[in-house]
TrEMBL record:
It comes from the Bacteria. It comes from Kribbella aluminosa. This is Dehydrogenase. The keyword Oxidoreductase applies. Pfam families: GFO_IDH_MocA. Residues 4-118 form the Gfo/Idh/MocA-like oxidoreductase N-terminal domain. Keywords: Oxidoreductase. The keyword Oxidoreductase applies.
Length: 361
């Protein structure tokens, strides 16, 4: 008997519904959105008749095994706790919470209930991240020296809850690829804010900055990570990008959407033996269709699926439930990565002081 999964919040969530419909371990998908028009639109496009306008109705339905929350981010923590306490496995779009205490509550609720919780962070499961993690683990990439992540996106005109949000509270798309590749926990951070929001925007979340930039030290790992996030007043192409540099190879995903990702290797010694030439090849990931079941393979390359990340995340969440095991991006990982952003914003407010990233177990 396969799972019944409810997808709640059907703007971004609309893109995830077909992935659950295709998954061989999912029998039934239920749609949930507060807006009747959205429910009708997505119901018509997916052919799904099971619809709920209220998350409470979903949580009260004993036939539903799991909920994937893609509602506005300020609702995530409360809805996650409600879902777990109602006996539902819970997946959540980033960011999972906006306060440190909520992260502790989520970790505790997951542990108390024994249910599965997974953060559906697309940056941790893209083709290059899956590939480079394997290359680093096998030693083929060499020892990593440095990693840099950036996420720039202009949030003018987006729903009001984004206005003035501390950039580092939603820095996970810049940080996650690096942490996933290195398998590391962020330990300390020093960060600075840059620019100044108008005072009415600053008042909303008590954040003065349109952009924040941070340096992370890692636990038991000598690599430093540099992470930059902007949401307002930064005229440039939107991008989620990362680079990782090692002693044998380097990778750069490109710093605008028009740039090609490059994979670097050493060439011949330079003139007089000074330095080495560098071979920069356009990067293309290896064959990764084995990462998802056959039914999901055609979706890996679809542009809305974040370089294969969304189908892989759905597969990991569903299989972790079927196999009664913790998912890869469980409550502890979600808390550590999210708290890393909170710590960076705190550091920026303190003018760059070293702030410890809380640890969760
Ligand atoms: N790459 C990524 O991981 C990625 C990309 C885009 C968005 N997101 C995240 O996905 C989430 C949703 O983003 P969005 O842009 O679609 O947000 P949105 O505000 O545009 O849409 C949210 C949807 O949820 C519905 N909704 C609101 N309250 C609800 C409730 N209480 N119960 C049920 N439905 C409710 C709304 O009607 C709407 O359809 C956000 O947390 C965002 O951060 C992540």
């Amino acid at each position: 008997m396969g799972l019944t999964v409810a997808v709640a919040g059907l703007n971004f969530g609309e893109l995830w519904v077909p992935l659950y419909q295709l998954h061989p371990d999912v029998d039934r998908v239920v749609l949930c959105d507060a807006s009747v028009e959205t429910l009708e639109r997505v119901g018509a496009s997916t052919g799904i008749a099971d619809r709920a306008q209220s998350l409470d109705d979903v949580l009260a339905d004993p036939r539903i095994d799991a909920v994937h929350l893609l509602t506005p981010l300020q609702l995530h923590a409360e809805q996650t706790l409600a879902a777990l306490h109602a006996g539902k496995h819970c997946a959540v779009a980033v960011t999972p919470a906006l306060e440190l205490d909520q992260l502790h509550q989520i970790v505790k609720a997951q542990q108390d209930t024994g249910l599965n919780y997974m953060m559906m962070e697309t940056g941790a499961y893209s083709d290059p991240v899956v590939h480079l993690r394997a290359e680093i683990d096998s030693g083929a990439f060499g020892n990593v020296t440095f990693g840099r992540g950036e996420h720039h996106q202009d949030m003018e005109g987006w729903p009001g809850y984004w206005v003035g949000l501390p950039p580092m509270w939603y820095s996970i798309h810049a940080l996650a690829p690096l942490l996933a590749i290195l398998g590391a926990r962020p330990a300390t951070v020093r960060a600075l804010g840059s620019g100044r929001l108008p005072s009415d925007r600053e008042a909303k979340w008590g954040n003065p900055y349109p952009l924040e930039t941070a340096l992370y030290e890692l636990e038991d790992n000598p690599v430093t990570l540099e992470v930059t996030r902007s949401m307002f007043q930064t005229t440039r192409s939107p991008i989620e990008s990362f680079s990782v540099w090692g002693d044998r190879h380097g990778f750069d995903s490109g710093r605008t959407n028009d740039e090609t990702a490059l994979f670097y290797s050493w060439g011949a010694p330079g003139p007089g033996g000074r330095g080495r030439t560098v071979i920069a090849e356009p990067y293309s990931p290896p064959e990764l269709s084995w990462t998802v079941p056959e039914e999901l393979r055609p979706t890996l390359a679809l542009p809305q699926n974040y370089n294969g990340a969304s189908p892989r995340l759905v597969h990991e969440f569903v299989r972790s439930i079927v196999e009664s095991r913790r998912p890869a991006l469980d409550a502890v990982v979600a808390a550590q990565w999210t708290a890393a952003g909170f710590a960076a914003h705190e550091s920026a407010l303190q003018g760059g002081a070293v702030v410890e990233v809380p640890s969760f177990t």
